[in-house]
Design goal:
Blueprint (H helix, E strand, L loop, with lengths): L1 E4 L7 H13 L2 H16 L6 H11 L9 H5 L1 H4 L3 E4 L3 H6 L2 H13 L10 H20 L1
Antiparallel strand pairs: 1-2
């Protein structure tokens, strides 16, 4: 897996100001919904299987309904616009061992857009790790 960063998505003053205000206004729960949904979008599919979203939502207790994760999955390319993930699609994620899943989780938490950060990097990493682990349950069964 190769990670590249290019450009600065919020390079001008007005964009940075708006992103800072959004970061201050959005509740943690909404940030968490957007974060987990967008991770599903970049790692798996922009149109994820409803059963996958159900398993993730049940494990992480993110939202009242798993469909809440869909919007952020649809716009995941925009959320993670300054991050290119190569070779990180479902087939490769499925083949990762625990150490590689944790490394991916830590990397995504560390490179998360500022306006979307909530809690600690450790919590965000755990959420990604659980998302990946829950996605594998159906495949293991």
């Amino acid at each position: 897996m190769t990670v590249k960063r290019y450009g600065v998505h919020a390079s001008n003053f007005l964009s940075r100001l708006i992103m800072n205000k959004i970061s201050e206004i959005l509740p943690t729960r909404i940030k968490r919904i957007f974060y987990i949904g967008s991770v599903v979008g970049i790692l798996f599919s922009k149109e994820p299987d409803p059963s996958l979203l159900d398993r993730i939502n049940e494990a992480l207790n993110v939202a009242y309904g798993s469909s809440s994760l869909l919007f952020s999955a649809y716009i995941s390319d925009r959320i993670w616009a300054d991050l290119i993930l190569e070779d990180v699609k479902f087939g490769n994620v499925r083949d990762m061992d625990n150490k590689e899943r944790w490394q991916l989780s830590l990397m995504l938490a560390h490179r998360c857009p500022n306006w979307l950060q909530y809690g600690t990097e450790q919590l965000m990493s755990f959420d990604v790790y659980e998302t990946i682990t829950r996605s594998l349950l159906k495949k293991a069964a």
